[in-house]
């Protein structure tokens, strides 16, 4: 028996409302370019809109002119989608709540997640959406996941409840030391500010 190795999220498809509401939300609120449009090949009565969330991957939305926006809380049953999160820069994050509230959107947060900051709001159909801003940049050649797994190991070793910035800083230092070479025989911390 062997695994089927995934290599990233290909796309996420959501059931949307009508075409214009979907375009207005995904491109007009979240700034995702509308990049592709065709019928839903499994249901020709629906449209299938494609948006770029910023990393070249895709968020796709099935639309129908029979479905109008109705903001209601979606089921939170086992197996249901709880929320969908999108990465934003710190600069964008600092203005996101204000920009959403200017549209009359109720925003929850910001929430301190230790390794990131988040705000939450609902799309026009009630889907919970998170805007997340990492508190760190991974070292060259590393991913956010590389930093997170190393920070997790350091958190567990210290007996801390959740990941905090001290774990992130330690993780980044450890990753740089492992991945980047140095001519120094001793790469430990030093104090060049000792008294003369």
Task: Describe, in plain words, how this protein is organized in 3D.
The chain is of the alpha/beta class and 196 residues long. It folds into three domains: 58 residues, 2,3-Dihydroxybiphenyl 1,2-Dioxygenase, domain 1, CATH 3.10.180.10; 66 residues, 2,3-Dihydroxybiphenyl 1,2-Dioxygenase, domain 1 (Roll), CATH 3.10.180; 36 residues. Helix content is 26%, strand content 26%. The protein has four helices and eight strands.
At the fourth level of CATH, the homologous superfamily of the largest domain is 2,3-Dihydroxybiphenyl 1,2-Dioxygenase, domain 1
The first-level CATH class of the largest domain is given as: Alpha Beta
Helix content: 25-40%
What's the CATH architecture of the largest domain? Roll
Search tags:
single chain, 196 residues, alpha/beta, 2,3-Dihydroxybiphenyl 1,2-Dioxygenase, domain 1, 3 domains, 4-stranded mixed β-sheet, 4 helices, 8 strands, elongated, Glyas_Fos-R_dOase_dom
Question: In terms of topology, how is this protein built?
Answer:
Layout: E1 11-15, H1 19-26, E2 34-40, E3 43-51, E4 58-63, E5 84-87, H2 90-101, E6 108-112, E7 116-122, E8 128-134, H3 144-158, H4 165-179
Parallel strand pairs: 1-4, 5-8
Antiparallel strand pairs: 2-3, 3-4, 6-7, 7-8
Helix pairs in contact: 3-4
């Amino acid at each position: 028996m062997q695994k089927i190795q995934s290599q990233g999220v290909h796309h996420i498809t959501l059931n949307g409302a009508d075409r214009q509401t979907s375009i207005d939300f995904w491109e007009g609120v979240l700034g995702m370019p509308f990049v592709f449009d065709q019928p839903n090949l499994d249901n020709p009565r629906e449209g299938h809109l494609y948006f770029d969330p910023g990393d070249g991957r895709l968020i796709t939305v099935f639309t129908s002119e029979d479905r109008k926006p109705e903001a209601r809380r979606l089921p939170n049953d086992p197996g249901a989608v709880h929320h969908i999160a999108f990465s934003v820069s710190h600069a964008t994050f600092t203005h996101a709540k204000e920009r959403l509230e200017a549209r009359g959107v109720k925003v929850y947060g910001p929430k301190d997640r230790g390794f990131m900051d988040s705000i939450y709001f609902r799309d026009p159909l009630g889907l919970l959406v998170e805007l997340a801003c990492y508190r760190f940049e991974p070292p060259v050649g590393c991913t956010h996941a590389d930093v997170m797994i190393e920070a997790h190991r350091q958190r567990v070793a210290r007996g801390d409840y959740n990941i905090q910035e001290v774990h992130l800083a330690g993780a980044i230092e450890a990753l740089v030391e492992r991945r980047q070479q140095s001519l120094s025989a001793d790469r430990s911390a030093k104090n060049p500010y000792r008294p003369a």
